[in-house]
Amino acid sequence: MASGADERTASLDGKYLASAGAAHSLGLGWDASRTTRGEHRHQSDTLQGAPAAALLQDYTARVDRLALFAQDEWTISDTFEGYAGIRWEGLRTGADGADLARVATTSSVASPILQLLWKLPGKNQLRLALARTYKAPLTSNLVPRRYTVNNNNGPANPDVEGNPALRPELSWGLDLGWERPLGQDGTLTLSGYAKRISDVTAQQLYRDGADWVARPVNDGDAGVAGIEVDLKSPLTLGGMAFELRFNAGRNWSRVEQVPGPGNTLAEQVPFAANAGLDYRGGGTWGAGANFNVRGGRTSRTGRFADGVATYRGRMALLDLYWTRKRDAQWRARVSVANALGGKRKTGTRWRDADGATVNRVLTWDMPASIRLGLECAL
User: What is the pLDDT of residue 212?
Assistant: First the structure.
């Protein structure tokens, strides 16, 4: 058997800016890209006393994207600044292969872009933005090549294939943010967002003869919302100067076509926090630590009571580093990734209309690793 995949991307973008009086700055631009992915699988199986069975699969998927935009940055007053524009984006996807007639989709959308900045007393700022976004499908999700499971194929462990008819996701989003300076170099930001997504991408499970198969499909609408806090500030402890970084966010989502509970977007992390502390040591040596934690979640697919639920366990990572300068060019570095080690559990559960269930639970080891390096500034 011989198989492989190859993906290439080419892009071209540009922007032209021009002043239109003291209060306006006009901008025109474009952003174009083409992504091509090819996959092949050539397999020949011979059974004793039976002729050889050959499997020849060659697929090519393409995603072409072109965006044109025009915008005006307007200084309304000493207190208010506005940003208004329009963006047109076109998308064309296609897939073909030796045993597949060409499947192509074409879509486009014109989207307004509106943003308002309000400068408050004390150098505080309040931002409000409204935008429409367009999310193209991954080329790997367009290729209909099937990845077969040879180890206990079932509803909780299905084969996987792409969908050449997959359409892009389109969404409206509203963002609100408050920014406050902290001292000379620090900032504090509180923000929230709400988004409405149509043609959301979800996994469809179906039977193909004796095999279970999962593929991505467009499955209606979803609502998404979240809040986030971001802090960056210098910190002095015991006469030593540090730099503190902290970020935390809480996210919610609801897929309307899927009954609850657990009808959330599969890729969304419900809670995540990141904290870091860096020490520069007067320029000769430095050290730091970064701690990241992500909450676990359960997500369901399927429009009916029966369907698949996937579970991703909580994950916590601690990274450490130490550096020392030898001279103006050379620096030694010691870093430890995932110093806590540990495990992460994932699971899949399928339940049919009669209440019968199939469970599949995996536990992933997350070992710590250490790296020694010598860096040279050129």
Answer: 87
Q: Calculate Rg over the CA atoms of the chain.
A: 26
Q: Which fold has domain 2-376?
A: Maltoporin; Chain A (2.40.170)
Closest to 127 measured CA to CA, from 76, 180, 179, 74? 179
Helix, strand or coil for residue 281?
Answer: helix
Q: Out of 24-28, 79-83, 233-237, which region has the weakest mean confidence (pLDDT)?
A: 233-237
pLDDT tens per residue across span 102-119: 778 888 888 888 999 999
Domain limits, the chain: 2-376
**pLDDT tens sequence across 157-206:** 888 888 888 888 999 999 999 999 988 889 999 999 999 999 998 888 88
To which residue do tokens 């070992």 refer? 367
Q: How far is CA 258 from CA 166, 203, 263, 302, 346, in A?
A: 19, 12, 6, 6, 21
Residues 280 and 286: beta-carbon distance below 8 Å = yes
The upper half-sphere exposure of residue 113, i.e. CA atoms within 13 Å in the direction of its Cβ, equals: 18
Using CA atoms in the order 154, 159, 165, 169, what is the torsion angle rounded to 10 degrees?
80
CB count in 10 Å sphere of residue 132: 17
Q: Which helix (H) or strand (E) holds 292?
A: strand 285-294
**What's the pTM?**
0.79
Which pLDDT tens digit goes with each residue over 265-312?
A: 888 899 999 999 999 766 788 899 999 999 988 888 765 555 788 888
| 167 vs 146: CA distance, rounded Å | 19
Nearest-5° Cα angle at 236, 235 to 240: 125
Phi/psi of residue 137, each to 5°? -70, 150
